[in-house]
Amino acid sequence: MQQRAECAHPKRDNSLGIHIRHSDKGVTRGGVIALSDFFPYANAFVENGGGSIFVATDSSLVIEEITSKWPSHVVYQGGTTLSRNDTATFDLAVSHHQTNLEALTDILALSKCTYLVHGFSALSEAAIYMNPSLIERSVNLEHKDQDDKAKYTKFLKMIESE
């Protein structure tokens, strides 16, 4: 598992993890976070000298769009089962074992990131559990404790202080 995560995310120093759920979340959990909501964070990270951006997602459309914006920064777990619509990836995979292995690899790779931007998700929470320093270095775009401007300002202060 460790080797899979290292292959998926080899450059972990000063890295940003982004977890973007799209496929089934929009159907079963009240909507998805627009991809454009993640862009200011990734852009600020890159503009402040950030290294790699590890993207954990269930959507091939997300990978296509985000790699077109920051091609030299984006890394992700290749060869995974990704959805092009609202079909859950576990419904597309060859086996549940494959889907579970891909999810666990994403968790481990995200846990090795310096920063994390995400929505409500057990996968993101597991990454934070594995790396408690992410508690103070993550932004949950769906958490309503702060408005969007305050979340972004907090993130900028984090990356600018490094």
Task: Summarize, please.
The protein is an alpha/beta fold and 162 residues long. Helices cover 47% and strands 12% of the residues.
Topology diagram in text:
Layout lengths: L1 H7 L7 E5 L4 H4 L6 H13 L5 E5 L2 H10 L4 E3 L12 H4 L3 H16 L3 E4 L3 H9 L7 E3 L7 H13 L2
Parallel strand pairs: 1-2, 1-4, 2-3, 4-5
Give structural attributes.
162 residues, alpha/beta, five-stranded parallel beta sheet, 12% strand
Shape from CA axes? globular
Largest sheet features? 5 strands, parallel
Oligomer: single chain
Radius of gyration: 15 Å
Helix content: 40-55%
Which series of helices and strands comes N to C?
Answer: HEHHEHEHHEHEH
Question: Structural class of the helix and strand makeup?
Answer: alpha/beta
Q: What's the count of strands?
A: 5
Mean pLDDT: 82
Low-confidence stretches are none
Instruction: Count the DSSP helices.
Output: 8
Kindly estimate the percentage of residues that lie in beta strands according to DSSP.
5-15%
Strand line-up in the sheet with most strands: 3-2-1-4-5
Distance between the termini: 29 Å
Account of the protein in words:
The protein is α/β, with parallel strands linked by helices and 162 residues long. A five-stranded parallel sheet has the order 3-2-1-4-5, sandwiched between helices. Strand 4, helix 7 and strand 5 form a beta-alpha-beta unit. Helix 1 crosses helix 6, helix 3 packs parallel to helix 8 and helix 6 crosses helix 7. The protein starts with a helix and ends with a helix.
